[in-house]
Every structure is written in C-alpha cells, then in structure tokens.
C-alpha cells in the first residue's frame, strides 16, 4: 500500500476509550430574539452538576474540548473560557473545535484519539450552540460608510457623508442565514435536502409522517423518563428550564400539510415542520482511559470502538452519514443488521430518509462503495427511537455530543451491544462513531 493510498484500512487505537458519564441541557427553541443564555452560560450550567457528581476534582482533567460553530465575540476559544469558569484551573488546557453540524462529535473524536494514543487519561468533551445569539451584521456598504465617517476630517466631509447615507445601509445581514448557506455551491442546507428528496423520490407526505413520528417519540421518551441526561437551567430572573421546549405533541400530518415549502418555493417539499428546529443547547461527556476508570472506580456508559469522517459533494451533503458509516462497518466486519440502535441526526426528514434509501439502493452502493449490491436497510424501530432534531432541535455545535450520549443510554437500558451515531455536515461531509455497551 502506497503512502498516498486513501484506503479505509488503519491500525486500531492502542488503548480502549470509555465514556463514563454525560449531561445535556434542555434544548430551547429559537423564537426570533436572543434567548436567555449565551453559549458559555449553557455550557457551564450543563457541566456543573456533571462535575459535582464525579469522584475526582475538575483540575484532574487532562484537557477540555468543546465544539462550537459560532461563539460570541467575547467567547473566543469558548472551551478555555468554560473550563476556567468550571474550576478546572489554570493548568488544564482547553480548545475549541468547529466542524459545522458535527462540532460536538469532533470534540469527542479528538478526545477519543488523544486517550487512545496515550496522551490523555481524562477528558471533558462536548458541544454547545446558542443559535438565538447569532449576530446581526452590517452590510458591506454600511461598513464602507462607517470607515469613511471614521476617517472624515471636519464638518464639511461629515455633512457630505450624511447626504450619502441611505435607508438600505441599515438593512441587517442575518448571520445565522449566512452560516446556513454553502458558499461553494450557493445552496442553503434546506435546498440540499430538496436535492435528496428529488433524487430518491421522497414525497411530502413521507417527510411529514417522519416529522410527526419524531415528535411522538420525543413525547413518549419524556413521559417515560428516558431523558435523564437533561440538567435544569436557571436564568438570571429565576426561571427554570427543565425540558426540550420545541416538542409539538399534537403534531399531525394534516397540520404539517398546511405549511408552505421554505427552500424551493412553491414546488418543494421541505418545510419548517419537517426540518430541524433552530435551537440553543449544550451537551457534555467525560471520556476516560482504562487506567482512569480503575483509579477512580468510575462507572462506564460504554466504549468508543471506532470513528470515521467522510466527504462528498456539498450539494448532496445530507448523505454524509452513509459515507462515514460504510468504512466503519467494513473495518469491523459488520453489516447493518449487526447494529442494534442508530442515531442519525435529523437535520431534515428528507435527509434521514435519503440515507435509508441510499443504503438500500443497489446502484448507489455499487457506484459509491464498490459493493456488489445494496448494503441493507436500517429498521425504523432501531433509528432515532426517542426523537431527534426535528422534535427537540439541532443546536449545531452540540448535537454530535448529544446523540452519542443518548445512544449509550439507549444501549444500556435495552441491554443492547452496538450502536452508531452519525451526522451530516454542511459543506459536504459526514461523521460517524461506533459505540459498544460493555455492561451487558
């Protein structure tokens, strides 16, 4: 094998890596104005109860890694800011990672590789996003006008500049919408989902039915106490936030059918109702080596077996999970039937359904993975069993950490062995992580 051979084969990690505990905040829906918490506040409040129940001091972490796509200007290297506020101390290094929708998964993967390689024993890793705090920006024209105003000399030049100021200069640029548009292909994330719906013949009714099921599954999970990883948040006015507030328990296909398409007017199928909700939230995990588990007598949620990153056409970005999952399965000698539970982040109903279709499509699997036939089908009863981004939201920096943590909880409560957590990534990528329950 040459050094430039892009094979999926690689040496296994040298040391086992365990996830021993985790927590997340309630996911709070964006409602058109800044929410009650900045990203750093979400991360700190979510992590505090997690750290308080550990048998070791926060200063014993080897590092803190936090995924975040758009921290506020006063939250530069938000991981370090949060680590210091959590009492990890001056000596614990902390760093922030950004891989769009999979930033939280990237944080866990970075921690996994650090521990597997013998560089760390205890790592606090997770993700956070306060999408409601995304900034409103000045236009380029306004920025030039302000620069000229700053350089103007004397009242005459300033009066002249005032005469050139137009109402259009004050039109804000919505930073969040800019971030959700791919600058290479010029498509919003929703438009890429429309591409997949057309490619695989996924109609509006099927998308809406999937969205309704997501809400029903989240409702059942909440009512059955299956979301015990949530930690309550408190704002400065004394209000408590205890649950994911984007849940619509009365959702129905009939109600969703009334919504108009957002990204491909008027003929598209992707609507606000069958897409992930814009949300604020945080999620954390604690990763440990076998040495740390034994030293502190830590309980084990599960083991990280493998991870994979993949890339594809940005206009087809929703298929990223498929391209990340296949190499993992091949390295492990597993088939789809060998995976007990799946978490595929629900960016859009069309995108999750397209991943299912791609895996069971002979032509796609032959062309993309040199397979003799389709790889199989992910059973609906094993996929996103407690809801997902459509019902509880997708704070882009946090979702990757959330799905890993919750998947491990599912494996334990079901006494199941294996699970895969995966996300599509804006810009045309996919990430996946193979997890194993070792308590059964």
Describe the fold and architecture.
With 440 residues, the chain is an alpha+beta fold. The protein has a domain of 172 residues: Peroxisomal Thiolase, Chain A, domain 1, CATH 3.40.47. The strands form 4 sheets. Strands 1, 2, 3, 4, 5, 12, 13, 14, 15 and 16 form a 10-stranded mixed sheet that branches. A two-stranded antiparallel sheet has the order 6-7. The protein has a two-stranded antiparallel ribbon with strand order 8-9. Strand 10 and strand 11 form a beta hairpin. It is globular. The two termini are 39 Å apart. The N terminus is likely disordered.
| Architecture (CATH level 2) name of the domain at 187-225 and 304-436 | 3-Layer(aba) Sandwich
Shape assignment:
globular
Oligomerization: single chain
Q: What is the tally of beta strands?
A: 16
Output the CATH topology of the domain at 187-225 and 304-436.
Peroxisomal Thiolase, Chain A, domain 1
Q: Total helix count?
A: 15
Name of the CATH class of the domain at 187-225 and 304-436: Alpha Beta
Give the biggest sheet: 10 strands, mixed
Whole-angstrom Rg:
23 Å
Question: What is the structural class?
Answer: alpha+beta
List the helices and strands and how they pair.
Elements: E1 17-24, E2 28-29, H1 39-52, E3 63-67, H2 78-85, E4 94-97, H3 103-116, E5 122-130, E6 136-137, H4 140-151, H5 154-164, E7 173-174, H6 175-179, E8 181-182, E9 187-188, H7 189-200, H8 204-223, E10 233-234, E11 240-241, H9 253-256, E12 279-289, H10 290-296, E13 302-311, H11 320-332, E14 341-344, H12 349-359, H13 362-369, H14 389-392, H15 399-414, E15 418-425, E16 429-436
Helix pairs in contact: 1-2, 3-15, 7-12
């Amino acid at each position: 094998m040459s050094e430039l051979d892009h094979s999926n084969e690689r040496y296994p990690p040298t040391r086992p890596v365990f996830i021993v505990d985790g927590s997340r905040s309630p996911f709070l829906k964006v409602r058109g104005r800044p929410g009650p918490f900045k990203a750093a506040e979400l991360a700190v409040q979510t992590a505090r109860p997690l750290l308080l129940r550990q048998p070791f001091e926060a200063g014993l972490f080897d590092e803190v890694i936090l995924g975040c796509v758009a921290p506020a200007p006063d939250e530069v290297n938000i991981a370090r800011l949060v680590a210091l506020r959590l009492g990890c101390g001056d000596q614990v290094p902390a760093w922030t990672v950004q891989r769009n929708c999979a930033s939280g998964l990237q944080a866990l993967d970075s921690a996994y590789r650090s521990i597997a390689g013998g560089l760390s024993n205890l790592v606090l890793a997770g993700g956070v996003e306060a999408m409601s705090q995304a900034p409103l920006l000045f236009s380029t024209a306004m920025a030039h006008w302000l620069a000229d105003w700053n350089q103007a000399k004397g009242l005459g030049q300033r009066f002249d500049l005032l005469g050139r100021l137009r109402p259009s200069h004050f039109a804000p640029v919505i930073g969040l919408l800019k971030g959700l548009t791919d600058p290479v292909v010029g498509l919003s994330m929703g438009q890429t989902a429309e591409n997949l719906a057309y490619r695989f013949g996924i109609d509006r009714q099927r998308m809406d039915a999937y969205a309704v099921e997501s809400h029903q599954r989240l409702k059942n999970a909440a009512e059955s106490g299956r979301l015990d990883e949530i930690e309550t948040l408190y704002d400065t006015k004394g209000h408590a936030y205890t649950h994911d507030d984007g849940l619509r328990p009365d959702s129905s296909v009939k109600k969703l059918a009334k919504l108009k398409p957002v990204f491909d007017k008027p003929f598209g199928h992707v609507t606000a109702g069958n897409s992930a909700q814009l949300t604020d939230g945080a999620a954390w995990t604690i990763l440990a080596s076998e040495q740390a588990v034994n030293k502190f007598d830590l309980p084990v949620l599960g083991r990280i077996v493998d991870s994979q990153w993949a890339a594809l056409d940005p206009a087809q970005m929703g298929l990223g999970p498929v391209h990340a999952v296949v190499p993992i399965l091949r390295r492990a000698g597993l088939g789809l039937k060998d995976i007990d539970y799946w978490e595929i982040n629900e960016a859009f109903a069309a995108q999750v359904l397209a991943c299912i279709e791609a895996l069971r499509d002979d032509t796609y699997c032959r062309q993309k993975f040199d397979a003799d036939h389709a790889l199989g089908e992910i059973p609906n009863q094993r996929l996103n069993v407690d809801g997902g981004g459509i019902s509880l939201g997708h704070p882009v920096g946090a979702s990757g950490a959330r799905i890993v943590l919750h998947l491990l909880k599912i494996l334990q409560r079901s006494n199941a062995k294996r699970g895969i957590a995966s996300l599509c990534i804006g810009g045309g990528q996919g990430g996946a992580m193979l997890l194993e329950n070792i308590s059964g």
